[in-house]
Amino acid sequence: MTSQSPAPAAELTGRISGGPSELLHEEVLAPQFRFESRHLLHHYVAIEKTLAAEYARMGLLDTDEAHAVAALLDGVGPDTLSARPDANMSDIAFAIERHVEAGLARPAVR
Asked: Where does residue 55 rank: exposed (0-12), middle (13-18), buried (19+ CB within 10 A)?
């Protein structure tokens, strides 16, 4: 499913070396992203808030970091996220993560 070489993805780590092809993005990932934004986003946000609270309980985030993450998650909505192969690989979870990272005053490194 490659129409062109994959778009470079911003700061990817692990085994992933590039973003999805344009064809994959247009035909599969972007429509899936739109569906999840409209119908499942509140579940994703609830999961992320629960994780932030658990990370605070475990001492991986301090209280201020956990509150900052939760506040940024409160601002997530279908109109605040977009499927971007270059920035979030057209994945809703990555898009939420990038949104939170961009809003933090300093990185929550743990």
From this structure: middle
